[in-house]
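Session log. Operator J.P. requested a structure for one protein chain; no other inputs attached. Running the standard single-chain path with token output.
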Amino acid sequence: MPNAVPNLRAFLELLRRDRQLVTVDALVDPDQEIAEIHRRAIAANGPALLFTNVKGSRYSVVTNLFGSGERTIRAFGNRPLAFMKELAELAHEALPPKPATFWNHRGLLAQGLKVGLRTVRQAPVCEVSERPKLSEVPLLKLWPEDGGAFMTLPLVLTTSPNDGKPNMGMYRIQRFNDRETGIHWQIGKGGGFHYHEAEERGEALPLSLFAGGPPALILGAIAPLPEGIPELMLASLLLGGRLPVRRLKNWPHPIPAECEFAFLGHVPPKKRRGEGPFGDHYGYYSLKHPYPVFQIKKVFHRKDAIWPATVVGKPRQEDFYIGDFLQEFFSPIFPLVMPSISKLWSYGETGFHSLAAAVVKDRYAREAMMSAFRILGEGQLSLTKFLLVTDTPIDLCDFKTTLRHFLERIHWETDLFVFSNLSMDTLDYTGPEVNKGSKGVMLALGPAVRQLPGEFSGVPANNDVRDARVYCPGCLVVGGPSFDEDRSFPERIARDPAFADWPLVVVSDRPKWATASDMNFLWTTFTRFEPGADIHAREKRIVRNHIAWSGPLVIDARIKPWYPKEVFAAPAIAERVTQRWREYFPSGNVEMGSSDRAHLAPG
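Structure written below.
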């Protein structure tokens, strides 16, 4: 496999040679039309798209760069995965230290010596310097109820006013006018911590925002690194050499030389403005909330700059493939950082934060719970809403088999823990208010304790049961009244003898659709319930201040009236894209998928 590429242009050339890039010369609108074309293409496993004729802008737009596992590997190369695997091997072999061990891994040590920044005098990103005029930059509006146009692949660099440590992250950026944007610093984000420090000092926070450049920069920006570890160093590691940067007089941040755009400015203290709504990667809108304002003072860009963008929505989108690559990338070192944890996987179908699973060691009674606390206390993993923990080596990526494994083993009385009044991912609206909610931990330890039913033949006493579908042995998905019509429906299901043999029952608005695929089940279940409010059981008792549940356990995964809307394309935009598809792709080489479903199965 090839190594990582040095900039966006080189990546596009690789994709052209691989026939993984299609150019669209027809006039297209950045207001929803480009996003809808992208969604149709990625839903059909289509190529990256380069739009050369964008309404209202002299710049081209490229999307779907990372819309497959193959293209993600093409972007980042084989070096990152190989480096991490060898690093893990060295850590295991280095104690006790032996000269032969380090000699055998001398290539790894040599790579480490190449990590860093390299200052250059000439930088392509600085070819043009001008005053900001964001209306000329082709920012995309993705969904009809979005609050405006957004930067969706921004690389945001800040430094701590207190200790000077840098952070580069990716936070959505809403255009307010030619000089100002919102900056969506969610909880737990490094840039947000820097802004908090600056605000406490009464100072504006200098901010540099980059677009384009080496794909390694994007991976560095979204990688869940421990606080204080520079993301630019990770980007350098991924590139296999020192990252070329330009230093500007009287500016605190290095400018990656190979980027397409650089926006420099400040975020003033105590200033907020409503940001959003925005159709997000959970597949629903995140709502309008007050966020800090980025005031742009200077813009640099290449002469023929290309604007990179992504589109988020229902799974799978580009963030899914990047997220899975990151999990594979970090998997060799999980046992080094957290020795009791053998495997860890977050499910992109749920937006990653809604569900994770781990294989851990259970060398003494309930050691597994210690590992659960360790995971929930680690950086971005702390935003995990529901965590499955087992001591048996299983393929966590096979969710149906994983859930069956848990349902065969769990003792509901002692192995389910719900923790209320905690922080929650900003984009998850299942809790009582933004940023607040609960977490659940489910243990499956030791041998199986029950055989699971595989067919439902019961006769519900509840006449409101309209449908019952088996997702996997032990898990039944039931339909009935909507949440608005009958909030207590799940409680009656839990007490109904017809369901007594089923360890887990999920109440869904659309059982047939929810059970049509693993992706459908994951998305419709875990993005639509909160552990502290939506778990029911036949009986709940307090034993030693612990809630002891008696099965069946019932999860209420119906849409609640306070949830934001599910994202759908505007009918007029969808019709326009359908009518123009052959105009965009006259050679007929790009299939048209479903924007409404993405990769979710019909049903």
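Operator note: The first strand starts at residue 21 and ends at 24.
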